[in-house]
Specification:
Helix content: 40-55%
CATH topology of the largest domain: Rossmann fold
Low-confidence stretches: none
Number of strands: 9
CATH architecture of the largest domain: 3-Layer(aba) Sandwich
Number of domains: 2
Shape: elongated
CATH class of the largest domain: Alpha Beta
Strand order of the largest sheet: 5-6-4-3-7-8-9
Strand content: 15-25%
Largest sheet: 7 strands, mixed
Mean pLDDT: 93
Order of helices and strands: HEHHEHEHEEEHEHEEH
Length: 206
């Protein structure tokens, strides 16, 4: 069983390792080392070995890591060796892009429902999805026992929608809105704000 006291920053690097291992496998590679992985990711080999050691022993000294085996173990650790159902709230331009993104299904996630609060959007299509009324969202999520949501609503609506998601039993939220949300203990949230990332980078631009 995976320990619960592993630092969040370590857990945050595991998906990076998994993504790179998946790329290596697609290139036809069979064995890799912490040095090669580190060079590809810009992370020290010592840090990679230390991170992986938090979860067990996956390679042998001098022989490196079997890429397929290590990737399978990291999927198990991240619990993406299964397919997670996800609800998407917000059917604006960003919501359309997220709903139509094809990269979720191969990495453990499947959007199953799309919701919006705008009456003019309800009943319309985004790809194969019919936009549903957010008023039905809590009951739907509870019935289907969905645990993960993506939030692509305006900042002004984000907290009220989040409260509904928490009420429905959602335990993990990926938020695209540029706002800090109040959530209870036990609910995990990650923010994706491109402006913050750009502001971070411009510090280094001469």
């Amino acid at each position: 069983m995976v320990r619960s006291n592993i630092p969040n920053i370590v857990v945050g690097r595991i998906p990076l390792y998994l993504r790179e291992l998946t790329e290596m496998a697609a290139e036809g590679k069979v064995i890799t080392s912490s040095q090669e992985l580190g060079q590809r990711l810009g992370i020290s080999s010592a840090q990679i070995r230390k991170d992986l050691s938090q979860f067990g022993e996956f390679g042998k000294q001098g022989t490196g890591y079997n890429i397929t085996f290590l990737a399978e173990q990291l999927r198990r650790i991240l619990k993406v060796d299964r397919l997670w159902s996800v609800v998407l709230v917000g059917a604006g331009d960003l919501g359309h892009a997220v709903a139509n993104y094809g990269g979720f299904i191969d990495r453990g996630f499947r959007i199953t429902r799309v919701y919006d609060i705008d009456p003019s959007k309800i009943g319309q299509k985004i790809g194969t999805f019919t936009i549903q009324d957010v008023a039905a969202m809590v009951d739907d999520i509870q019935k289907e026992r969905i645990k993960i949501a993506m939030l692509a609503v305006p900042a002004s609506d984000a907290q009220s929608v989040t409260d509904m998601l928490v009420e429905a039993g959602i335990q993990a939220i990926l938020c695209y809105a540029p706002v800090s949300l109040k959530i209870p203990d036990g609910v995990k949230i990650q923010y994706i704000d491109p402006v913050l990332r750009l502001q971070h980078m411009t510090f280094y631009v001469p």
